[in-house]
Amino acid sequence: MAPCEVYWDHHIPVPKLLPVHAKLGVALLALLCFINSYDGDFVFDDSEAIINNKDLNPDTPLNNIWINDFWGSNLSSNSSHKSYRPLTVLTFRLNYLVAGGLHPVGFHVLNIVLHAVISALMIDVFDILIGGLAYDGEGRSLYQAPKTSLLAALLFGVHPVHTESVAGIVGRADLLCALFFQLSFLTYCKAFHRGGDRGEKVSVRWIAFSLSLCAAAMLCKEQGITVLGVNAAFDVLLICKVNVFELSQRLLLGRKPANVGGILPTGLLTRLALLAVGGVLLIYSRWRIMGTGPPAFTEVDNPASFEESVFLRIVNYNYYYSLNAWLLLCPWWLCFDWSMGCVPLIKSTADWRMVWPLLLWCVLIGLISQALCSQDGQKRRTLTLGLVLMGVPFLPASNVFFRVGFVIAERVLYLSSAGYCLLLAYALGACCLHWRALRKPFRGCVLALLCVHVSRCALRSHQWRSEESLFTSALSVCPLNAKVHYNVGKNLADRGNSSGAIKYYREAVRLHPTYVHAMNNLGNILKEREQLDEAERLLAKAVSIQPDFAAAWMNLGIVQNSLGKFQEAEQSYWNAIRFRRKYPDCYYNLGRLYADLNRHLDALNAWRNATVLKPDHSLAWNNMIILLDNTGNLAQAEMIGREALKLLPNDHTIMFSLANVLGKTQKYQESEGFFLQALRINPNAASCHGNLAVLYHRWGRLDQAKRHYELSLNLDPNAPGTRDNYNMLRRKLDQQQRTAP
Questions:
Q1: Are 384 and 416 in contact (CB under 8 A)?
Q2: 120 found inside a domain
């Protein structure tokens, strides 16, 4: 058997376990942390990525997931966020198929299981990064999970910063990306199992397979491409054992080594070239798929990137890095959204927060110096690879290469936290080795840290179970975040608490005076409460700030129509349609305006446009029937009614309107059939009972008319006209009884 090198670290205060038992233990602990989110609702971004995403529906062509973005919008659209994650969307679609619909339990369970699997696999990843590759002469693996790897995997599995990725269903993208990231790295390592001491013999097939898994990671989330950087660092530091500090010194001082191959083996350069070519091809393919270029983010999304001073922009970016580092160190202050005032910008060097970026870089420089200059080769490699695993996956979120659409996002730390956990576990092990007398206190501290993290995960995942608890939890973390107040208000409005919603919408507008979505929603509630003047002012301000805000233009038109400002309302509706050409609801409201102005032909045309754009627009169909009925165009009304029922065969409102038309044309039997069908669907409709009674009254079926008049009055004693018709019928019945022989 050929000699091999295995690194052991018996000083770590974690019980020794067999690899299978260790992985099982890590997986179970990871499950324990997040299991209480299994029956949570769809929350926050889940509504757009899952509930409103037609690509999940089995009736939608499967090919759509390859041409649409993560949210179901076409990638060529200027409004697309350009997030291309078809494999993630495919798993959502499979969840939909298995569950037979949008049932969140299956979605949550798969997320929790994925996190448990990833946490268990982290033992293998950390094992290699700390101990290297050990193999016998026949290529069989000899390495097993050392205690540092186990501790690092435990820390990873229970880290609370992962809650957003695990408990939030859209976090599936981060989980799948991490899984393929791990597999790509482990597969790249597999290429060296039969190699020599410095990788002279490698399997090109395994490297190609690793590149394929990297592509799969990218198809789950863009961050997946960063595995190439980790693979390259592993090759340089662990396979070829290159001393980076010595190499950089020689290059900077211009000293050419006597044996260049001793520093950079030829095989290494070939493999790095393969990784580079693969990475360039993947990035080029991704860019071509993106279509119209990168997404356009606003100042609200990432205010630091719009700072005019380059110096202050860099300062704020580094302040964001320090906040991300703090979330890894102390994951107590967690929030679903960190934008809109949650992190105020640093405007001058006098700001006391400048100390945090300085402190971050002092720590990083200290770690980097240890990673480069330590006399201990294993320490150098472990620290360097830990820093690589922490920093490289974070690069796409760093604003270095391109502007991102967020300030801080806990989900982007899912992979970076692995590097942090490796460094923390290694540091704890070094402390135990240095201070052997404190081994028991250290063991207690590690156990306490794990327990605190498990408790925090359980609490935070419980908060992710519903939008109410999620949004409310953010108020104490980011009280200056206008978006938090907006989401709390929206949740209250959806639950019918308009008074509470108004309070939070007003606070959102106060914190962010140009928050047009909060103005729009607040204007809508005020419109419903008949506070039309203030609603008009808010909506007019919203469209002045964002002239292409189609929904606000339409809502402004509704308010102006209610105020009798018909000309202004018509112009507002047309502005909405100009900015959103396919806007059926706006055509519907425009039709109502024309109907109020007795412009019947224009009203019919507007409602027809609404049904063309949205064939199941019930209100537009119904209004066309009613208008034609009221203007005496009964034949056309009947034709429209029958056309509508072909598209909406179970719509009781259309059945009711068509039955009224048929009754007026003395098609009593057919009219009766539609009335009865409508009542089967909605048996408590007082107006339907009342109109059916009128039909029987005209038809001469007086007993049935009397019964339905009474049913209508029981449901609605104040129904207009029903009481008079009922009294008329009773007088007629009394007269018949008196004249009867």
A1: no
A2: no
